[in-house]
Amino acid sequence: MDRTLAADLARLPELLDATRDAAAATLAALDARPVVSVPPPHPAAEPAPPLPEHGAGTEAALAAFAERWAPRLSASAGPRYLGFVTGGATPAALAGDWLTAAHDQNSNSALDGGGQDLERETVTWLRDLFHLSAAHTGTFVSGATMSNTTGLAIAREWLGERLGVSPAEDGAAALGPVRVLSGAPHSSIAKALSVLGLGRASLVPVPTLPGREAVDPAALDRALADAPGRPAVVVANAGTVNTVDFDDLRAITALRERHDFWLHTDAAFGAFAALSPAHAHLTDGLDASDSVCVDLHKWLNVPYDSAVQFTRRRDLQARVFQNAATYLGPLSDDPDLVHLTPENSHRLRALAAWFTLRAYGREGHREIVERDIACARSLGEFLTQDPYFTALAPVRLNVVCFTLTRSPTPARLTALREAAGPEVFVTPTTYAGTPALRAAFSNWRTTQADVRRIAQALHTAAKELG
Ligand SMILES: *Cc1c(COP(=O)(O)O)cnc(C)c1O
C-alpha cells in the first residue's frame, strides 16, 4: 500500500473528525457569508496545478480545498439562495448522504439485495407522500432530467406497443413520426427527446390558457385530433419554473376518452404541493399519469443528486433498460434495478431520502413546504409594495416572478443581481416576453427574517441602480 494511503488508513477516525469539523464550520458560516461571491474570483481561469506525483494525504487535501475551492463555492445550501429551484440538505439527509459514501453500495441487484430493498422501501414512502397509488413503481435516478428521460423512454416503448414495433429492439425510427404535445415544458423535455432519438422537433407546443403557463385543455384536444389514429405522448406540467403553474391533470386525463396517448407528468418540484392541504388540489389527478417525474434534491432537501421516476408500466421500463448479462440476475416480474434505469451501477442515493423521511416524517416535510410557500408569498407582497419592482404573476406556490418597474433590460437585471449578490441569489428568466427574475423558495432553513433581508437587499440594489 502507498505510504500516504496507509498512514491515512491508520488515522481514519481522526481524518473523519477533521472532515466533520470542516463541514460543521461550512454550515455554521452559511448565514454570514455572501450567498454568492460577486464578482466571482476565477481560479478556474488560472492554469491548473500539476497532478501531484506523490500525494500529501487527506489532511493536506482538506487544507488545499479550504484555501482554493471552498471560498469559490456558493452558499447554495443556505436560506437565501433562491436561484433555479435548489433546496438544501436537512441534517438527517446530510447524515444519510455521508453514510451512503461510507457504505459505498452498488444497490442494483438482488444478488446483494440490501440496498435495493432500502430503495424500494423509500419509494413506497415517497409514493404515499405524493398520494400515488400502488399501481406506480418507482426508481431513483440522478435528477429530474434523468427522470423525464426515463419516463419518455417508457413512453417511446409504449408507442411501439401500440404500433406493433419495439423501439428498444429496432430503434426509434421504427415508430415513424412521433408527436409529443405539451403547453410549457421544461427545457429538459427537449433534451430527453434528443437523447431518445425522437428528436427535439417531435415536441409540439400547445397553446396555454390566456395569461397562464398551464396548457389549454381545449387546445390540447384539438392538437391531439390533428393526427387521428396515431398514438401520441402528452407531457403535462405540474409546476412550471417561471410561475409554478399547473396543468389541469384531470381535464387532460379526461381527453383519453377520445384520444390515445401516454401521459407523462413533470412534477419535478410541483409534486410537493401535495404535502400542503391548502395546495394539494394542484396535483389532483397526478396518479392517473403513466409516468411521473419528481425531483428530490429540490424540495425534499436531500443533497444533489437525487430524483425519482414513477411509472405504471414497469414491464415496458424493463424492456427499455434490461441489461442481460450472465452474471446478473434473470429478468423477473420484479426486475432488479439494473434493468430499470439508464445506469447499471447505482449509488445508494435513496439513503439520504430515507433518512430525512424517517427523521422528520410527513409533518416535518409539510412544515418545510408550507413555510417556503409563506416566504414566497411574503416576498411577493414586499415587491408588490415596492415601487422599484413589478410582479409578473401571482405567487401560486413557491416562486416569485418579478422585474424592475423602470427599464427592465437584461443588463440592468444583471446589475441588480450582482449588487444584491452577497445577500441573495436569484436567477434571470424571460416571462411573457419581459426580461425578469425568479426567486424560488425550497430550502428548509429559510425564514421570514430571511425574506425581510432579501426584500431590503433587492430594494437597496434597485435604488442604487436608479
Ligand atoms: C429542475 C427541473 C427539471 C430538471 O431537473 P434536474 O434535477 O436539474 O435534472 C425538470 N423539470 C422541472 C419542472 C424542473 O423544475
Brief characterization of the structure:
The protein is α/β, with parallel strands linked by helices. The protein has helices at residues 3-10, 12-28, 57-68, 91-103, 114-129, 144-163, 167-170, 187-195, 217-225, 249-254, 314-321, 350-385, 410-420, 448-465; strands at 137-141, 180-182, 203-205, 232-237, 261-266, 291-295, 307-311, 389-391, 399-404, 427-431, 434-440.
Write the layout of secondary structure elements.
Elements: H1 3-10, H2 12-28, H3 57-68, H4 91-103, H5 114-129, E1 137-141, H6 144-163, H7 167-170, E2 180-182, H8 187-195, E3 203-205, H9 217-225, E4 232-237, H10 249-254, E5 261-266, E6 291-295, E7 307-311, H11 314-321, H12 350-385, E8 389-391, E9 399-404, H13 410-420, E10 427-431, E11 434-440, H14 448-465
Parallel strand pairs: 2-3, 2-4, 4-5, 5-6
Antiparallel strand pairs: 1-7, 6-7, 8-9, 9-11, 10-11
Helix pairs in contact: 2-3, 4-12, 5-12, 6-8, 6-11, 12-14, 13-14
The structure holds pyridoxal-5'-phosphate.
